């Protein structure tokens, strides 16, 4: 029941406060409230309302001073509180003269208030001073510059004021002579112009237009510093005059000569720097690259003649990034796995225990000319390549990943792919790598290529290693590809997208997982602010052909949150087969947690034992995988509502291969290290 004020004849139920726990203060409250009858009694459930306290005794906000601005800020409290050591005094039966006046401000609080007031005064004074400072030093016209230079003469510069301009002269004086080093002009448009006799140069445009005195002073300091440099500037000044003259010709000569003038200007600019500090314009680099690609010998002759300053051949090759993309050359024994041969000397032993990941990329068939070579040809025919088979290395005891070989092909057969795969494995073993497993997708050509490692050809979890018959070579199908196929098989069911599967604990019980239950769940929750199935989206529930290849959309459905959501909303919303669908999703979620573990502490961080690394102590994970294999074998006997033959075989082989690979790891690698596939 709600609390009420314990004061006689007070029926207010506003903000209520509990009695203090100290016995002396509690008795004082009771005396002031006229409730002596409650002395020596349990008053845990008694309250006093805010009307029986002075307004100053009730704290409704917290006041703090800002250290940056000194302003007093009031932060409202979530509920009113009593100040320390207050007693109820404002009682209905007592006169107003009995009310206690508000307490004085403490010395510490008063000192803090005075400090903040002084800080605010200092900030206001500083802002006013800054406004005055910038008001005197901001330029809007030539008259403002004249007024500033009149009040604040420059120490190193002599000023001459004219109605339409201001002239500044830098005179370097010593004991015997004086020398005029530079003349500047501030125009009516507030532009800073360098004077060479009667010629005006606009090379100081990065100081223009002048907007304030600070910009003017900094610009003059940089110019004065460059003028006092002991290095002779005579050559640079003459070259600048040449550039000035060439630029003036652009407006006098016809447009067809502009490229010639720009080229000559670039050559003049290159004369200012040493050979090792040349900086070429993009036009010069493009021109040089074209000549070098047409005839390297001709380019070398022009460069050695000394008539032109051009980039070296090394610079051209570095900029153009010449790449030999001839497929025939890539398959030659002298260049085979050339990159990995160069890279392996920088790898440690853990980086060399690898899995080979094989995948294919469909490419547009066309040829192109790059870096002096025609690319796009297929290695096994005169036609353009339609696919690129990529062989990638992934270290299973470190984070090292790299591409070992790319095979462009057109209509590649399984026998040829097997030959290349075996050649790559043997070459890697000769370099010092240890190839433990091959991971591919569930493509038919990849499965058939792997089957040739046995005689007669057959698909199994492991084969005799081509480099050492005493070692196994494991074959695992990519689990990401399998998960996408599981979802796609569910969507492709012709019986209303229903998967008929055996119960995981009792194989004699049949269950039905309906995709419609997941869609109904999203429909029920789509307008809620807080959702159980927060991962669901329309793209995940109604994917297009392209979106079916996106594993992120698959994981929106096969998610533990969807399992929880089905079990929460199923009974309330009468979702069809909600429990069977939740069990189906949970089985594959647990399988995915096991095969998708990539870090050591993921399981502990998420408190999920199935996300811990697979070790010899992972008894619960092994039990699940063995039971999962038996469950798949029993599911295979069903007539309809099951996975396709290819998907079923892929997931069965992947689980069996993972178990055998883990057992091999425990026997071969005795040290306490974890590896991931």
UniProtKB/TrEMBL annotation:
Keywords: DNA-binding, Metal-binding, Zinc, Zinc-finger. InterPro entries: THAP_Znf, THAP_Znf_sf, TNP-like_RNaseH_N. Gene3D superfamilies: THAP domain. The keyword Glycosyltransferase does not apply. SMART domains: THAP (SM00980). It comes from the Eukaryota. One of its GO terms (molecular function) is zinc ion binding. Coiled coil: none annotated. The keyword Lipid metabolism does not apply. Residues 1-91 form the THAP-type domain. This is THAP-type domain-containing protein.
């Amino acid at each position: 029941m709600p609390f009420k004020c314990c004061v006689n004849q007070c029926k207010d139920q506003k903000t209520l406060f509990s009695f203090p726990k100290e016995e002396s203060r509690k008795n004082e409250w009771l005396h002031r409230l006229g409730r002596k009858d409650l002395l020596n009694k349990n008053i845990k459930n008694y309250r006093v309302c805010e009307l029986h306290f002075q307004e100053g005794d009730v704290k409704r906000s917290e006041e703090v001073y800002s250290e940056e601005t000194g302003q007093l800020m009031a932060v409202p409290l979530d509920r009113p509180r009593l100040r320390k050591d207050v007693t109820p005094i404002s009682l209905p039966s007592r006169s107003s003269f009995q009310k206690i006046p508000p307490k004085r401000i403490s010395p510490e609080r008063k000192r803090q208030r005075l400090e903040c007031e002084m800080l605010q005064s200092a900030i206001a004074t500083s802002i006013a001073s800054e406004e005055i400072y910038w008001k005197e030093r901001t330029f809007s016209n030539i008259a403002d510059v004249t007024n500033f230079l009149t009040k604040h003469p420059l120490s190193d510069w002599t000023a001459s004021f004219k109605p339409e301009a201001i002239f500044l002269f830098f005179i370097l004086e010593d004991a015997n002579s004086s020398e005029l080093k530079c003349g500047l002009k501030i125009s009516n448009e507030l532009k800073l112009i360098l004077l060479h006799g009667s010629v005006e140069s606009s090379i100081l445009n990065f100081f223009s237009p002048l907007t304030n005195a600070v910009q003017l002073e900094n610009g003059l300091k940089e110019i004065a510093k460059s003028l006092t440099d002991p290095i002779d500037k005579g050559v640079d000044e003459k070259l600048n005059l040449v550039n000035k003259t060439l630029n003036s010709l652009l407006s006098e000569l016809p447009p067809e000569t502009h490229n010639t003038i720009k080229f000559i200007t670039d050559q003049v600019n290159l004369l200012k720097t040493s050979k090792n500090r040349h900086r070429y314009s993009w036009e010069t680099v493009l021109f040089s690259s074209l000549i070098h690609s047409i005839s390297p010998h001709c380019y070398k002759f022009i460069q050695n003649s000394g008539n032109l300053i051009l980039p070296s051949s090394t610079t051209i090759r570095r900029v153009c990034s010449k790449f030999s993309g001839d497929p025939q050359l890539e398959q030659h024994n002298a260049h085979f796995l050339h990159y990995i041969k160069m890279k392996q000397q920088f790898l440690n032993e853990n980086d060399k225990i690898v899995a080979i990941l094989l995948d294919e990329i469909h490419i547009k068939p066309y040829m192109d000319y790059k870096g002096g070579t025609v690319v796009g040809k297929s290695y096994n025919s005169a036609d353009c390549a339609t696919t690129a088979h990529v062989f990638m290395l992934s270290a299973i005891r470190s984070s090292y990943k790299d591409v070992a070989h790319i095979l462009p092909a057109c209509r590649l057969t399984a026998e040829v792919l097997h030959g290349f795969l075996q050649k790559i494995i043997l070459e890697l073993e000769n370099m010092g790598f240890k190839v433990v497993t091959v991971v591919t997708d569930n493509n038919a050509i990849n499965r058939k290529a792997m089957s040739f490692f046995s005689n007669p050809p057959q698909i199994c979890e492991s084969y005799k290693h081509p480099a050492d018959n005493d070692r196994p070579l494991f074959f695992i199908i990519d689990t990401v590809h399998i998960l996408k196929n599981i979802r796609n098989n569910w969507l492709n069911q012709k019986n209303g997208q229903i998967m008929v599967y055996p119960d995981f604990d009792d194989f004699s019980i049949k269950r039905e997982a309906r995709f419609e239950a997941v869609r109904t769940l999203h429909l029920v929750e789509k307008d809620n602010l807080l959702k159980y199935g927060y991962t669901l989206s329309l793209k995940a529930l109604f994917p297009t052909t392209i979106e079916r290849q996106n594993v992120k959309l698959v994981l929106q459905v096969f998610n533990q949150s969807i399992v929880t959501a089905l079990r929460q909303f199923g009974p309330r919303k009468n979702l069809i087969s909600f429990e069977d669908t939740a069990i189906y999703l949970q089985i594959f979620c647990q399988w995915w947690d096991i095969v998708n573990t990539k870090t050591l502490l993921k399981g502990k961080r998420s408190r999920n034992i199935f996300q811990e690394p697979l070790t010899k102590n992972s008894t619960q994970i092994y039990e699940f995988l063995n039971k999962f294999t038996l469950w798949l074998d029993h599911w295979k006997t069903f007539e309809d509502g099951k996975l396709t033959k290819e998907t079923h075989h892929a997931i069965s082989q992947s689980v069996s291969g993972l178990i055998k690979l883990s057992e091999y790891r425990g026997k071969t690698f005795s040290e306490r290290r974890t590896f991931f596939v």
